[in-house]
């Protein structure tokens, strides 16, 4: 136990206090939701990091995931040849995101659809939904959606489609927040490919982070917009609305086509937002030089630097060592406009260049970045949910920015929880 572990513990309390400060109705905040939401995170972290049996389970999951990723590369290498070879392998021409990482999404989307078809994912989601209903006392519909968000993306909203129309504002807040605070299993392999060079056993940690983020997102959502009405499914366990493919082959085809759309969307968003941010940066740099003509010298007004200042207090509160805090803060700030993909890439590059000094910083950042908590995702989730219930578009639009804020704070809480349990060497899951 070090001082930084204690800082992470204090950081969790700071994030809860900040959420309470932002609450739209402080008197209605449910102590049961908050206490049990944090308790579920702590209990799960204890199981993964300190209980040998739990650690072994996640080591096995890590190894299975790595084997699955290697299988995915068979198809990628067949299609792209040398372009698909990872750095360090004979014939590789270096890391190329479009040919070595993005195609894995297609494979994982197809695999998830197949697992849904055989009933495995449905049973797994049901387990988490029951836990959230029984322990946290929230509605069955929002519990089911939050549970599905652990493994799926925007398509999770389809699992509760019959209930969306009559959801309260607080329930809709949970739907949007859990969507932006978690990741989809279809992109898990993508992140593993980016991070495996700096973080051994990262697959197990990304699975752990995705599970930890769900209760954190529920807590953040329910604190900012507490329940003030009577949800139709309060205290009830509801079943997922899911239309299965007619056969395993159809499931694979459907999943692969979904994966293709995701790859195109991610690629388009990266091209658009990185370009726009670069343009904005150039404008800010010019203004800095212009302002510098009236002062002692040019002023650094780059967007990364500004966002670094904004996210610095949150980074320190998570328990990131002060020497690494400026770098990690910039990476966290970058996520809000350029997605977690760019942030994970930069984390990997900085770590390989030795510009991040502590293993602890990489560990916490990996957990804190594990979510779709950014502006492009806000557009996707608000637009996607509104398309399912157009009559609630006004409510969804009003909640959107609050959900994005809550999602980021949920990610920071999860980073702090990881920081509490971090030990030098990263514990069992961190060791090669």
What is the structure about, briefly put?
By secondary structure, the protein is mainly α.
The biggest sheet amounts to:
none
Number of contiguous helices: 17
Work out the helicity level.
Answer: over 70%
The ordered string of helix (H) and strand (E) elements is HHHHHHHHHHHHHHHHH
How much strand content do the residues show? under 5%
Number of strands: 0
* Shape descriptor: globular
Determine the structural class based on helices, strands and strand pairing: mainly alpha
N-end to C-end Cα span: 22 Å
Radius of gyration (Å): 21 Å
Q: What is the mean pLDDT?
A: 86
List the helices and strands and how they pair.
Blueprint: H1 3-22, H2 31-49, H3 52-80, H4 97-100, H5 103-117, H6 120-136, H7 140-149, H8 161-164, H9 169-181, H10 188-195, H11 202-224, H12 248-292, H13 303-317, H14 325-352, H15 359-368, H16 375-388, H17 393-421
Helix pairs in contact: 1-17, 2-11, 2-17, 3-5, 3-11, 5-12, 6-7, 7-9, 9-11, 9-17, 10-11, 11-17, 12-14, 13-14, 14-15, 15-17, 16-17
Explain how this protein is built.
- With 432 residues, the protein is mostly helical.
- It has a domain at 3-225 and 236-270 and 391-421.
- Helices cover 70% and strands 0% of the residues.
- It contains 17 helices and no strands.
- The protein has helices at residues 3-22, 31-49, 52-80, 97-100, 103-117, 120-136, 140-149, 161-164, 169-181, 188-195, 202-224, 248-292, 303-317, 325-352, 359-368, 375-388, 393-421.
- It starts with a helix and ends in an 11-residue tail after the last helix.
């Amino acid at each position: 136990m070090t001082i930084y572990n204690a800082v992470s513990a204090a950081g969790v309390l700071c994030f809860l206090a900040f959420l309470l400060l932002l609450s739209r109705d402080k008197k209605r905040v449910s102590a049961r939701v908050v206490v049990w939401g944090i308790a579920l995170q702590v209990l799960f972290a204890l199981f993964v990091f300190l209980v040998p049996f739990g650690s072994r389970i996640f080591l096995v999951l890590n190894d299975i995931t790595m084997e699955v990723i290697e299988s995915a590369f068979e198809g990628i290498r067949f299609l792209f040849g040398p372009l698909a070879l990872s750095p360090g392998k004979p014939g590789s021409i270096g890391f190329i995101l479009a040919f070595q990482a993005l195609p894995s999404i297609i494979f994982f989307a197809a695999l998830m659809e197949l697992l849904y078809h055989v009933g495995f994912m449905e049973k797994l989601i049901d387990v988490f939904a029951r836990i959230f209903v029984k322990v946290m006392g929230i509605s069955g519909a929002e519990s089911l959606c939050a549970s599905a968000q652990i493994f799926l993306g925007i398509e999770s909203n389809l699992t509760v489609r019959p209930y969306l129309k009559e959801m309260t504002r607080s329930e809709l807040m949970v739907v949007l927040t859990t969507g932006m605070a978690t990741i989809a299993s279809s992109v898990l392999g993508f992140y593993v490919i980016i991070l495996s060079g700096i973080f051994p056993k990262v697959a197990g940690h990304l699975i752990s982070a995705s599970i930890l983020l769900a209760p954190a997102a529920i807590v953040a959502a329910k604190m900012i917009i507490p329940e003030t009405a009577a949800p139709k499914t309060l205290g009830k366990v509801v079943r997922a609305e899911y239309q299965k493919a007619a056969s395993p082959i159809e499931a694979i085809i459907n999943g692969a086509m979904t994966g293709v759309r995701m790859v195109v969307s991610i690629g388009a968003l990266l091209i658009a937002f990185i370009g726009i941010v670069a343009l904005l940066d150039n404008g800010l740099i010019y203004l800095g030089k212009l302002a510098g003509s009236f002062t002692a010298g040019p002023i650094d007004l780059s967007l990364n630097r500004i966002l670094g200042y904004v996210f610095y207090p949150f980074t320190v509160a998570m328990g990131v060592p002060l020497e690494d805090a400026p770098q990690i803060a910039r990476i966290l700030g970058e996520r809000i406009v350029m997605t977690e993909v760019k942030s994970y890439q930069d984390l990997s590059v900085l770590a390989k260049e030795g510009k991040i000094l502590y293993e602890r910083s990489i560990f916490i950042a990996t957990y804190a970045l594990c979510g779709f908590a950014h502006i492009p995702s806000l557009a996707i989730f608000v637009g996607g949910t509104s398309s399912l219930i157009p009559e609630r578009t006004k409510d969804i639009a009003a909640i959107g920015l609050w959900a994005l804020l809550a999602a980021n704070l949920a990610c920071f809480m999860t980073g702090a929880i990881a920081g509490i349990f971090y030990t030098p060497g990263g514990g069992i899951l961190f060791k090669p």
